[in-house]
Amino acid sequence: MTPDEVAEYVESLPLVKRKGTESRPAWYVHDRLVVRLQDPGTLVIRVPLSERESLLETYPDSFGVPPRMEAHHKVEAYLDDAQPEAVRAAIDLAWDMQRDAPSLLEPPAQSDG
User: Fold this and answer.
1) Taking Cα atoms as reference points, which of 13, 11, 72, 78 lies closest to residue 47?
2) How many CB atoms lie within 10 A of CB 55?
3) Residue 98: is it exposed, middle or buried by C-beta count within 10 angstroms (0-12/13-18/19+)?
4) Position 100 confidence tier, pLDDT thresholds 50, 70, 90
5) What's the whole-number mean pLDDT along residues 15-33?
C-alpha cells in the first residue's frame, strides 16, 4: 500500500480531516488522531488497546509496536510489507474509536439534576 492509497482510503471516511504537512500528513476525526504518515514507509495508527494484540497476531508482518508506543493506543504499519486489507482494518478501528469519542470542541453534556 502506498501513502497515496492510504490518503485516498482515509479521506473516503466520513468526518475525516487532513492536517499535518505535505511530507507528514495526518488525518483526524473530531480533532483526534486516526492515522499519520511517519515517513514514506511507516504509518502510525491509533487503535484501541483491546484490539492491538489481535492486529499484531493476525498480521505480524504488517504491524509493530516500538517501545516508545507500548503505553499508547498506537501501532506502526510498515507499508512495504503490510497487507492492504490489514492497514484498512486498523484504520477502520481507529476511525471507529475516534468517531465515537466525544468531540474536544463540544462542551460536556449538562445533567438535569
Assistant:
1) 72
2) 21
3) buried
4) confident
5) 95
- Which CATH number fits the domain that encloses residue 26? 3.90.1150.30
Instruction: Give the whole-angstrom CA distance, residue 95 versus residue 71.
Output: 20
Number of domains in the chain: 1
Widest distance between CA atoms in the chain: 55
For residue 2, the model assigns a pLDDT of 95
The residue type at 88: R
User: What is the grid cell recorded at 44?
Assistant: 502510525
Q: Residue 105 pLDDT > 70, yes or no?
A: no
* 6 burial level (CB within 10 Å; 0-12, 13-18, 19+): buried
Lookup: cell for 112: 438535569
- For the beta carbon of residue 26, count every other beta carbon within 10 angstroms: 18
Domain limits at 41?
3-100
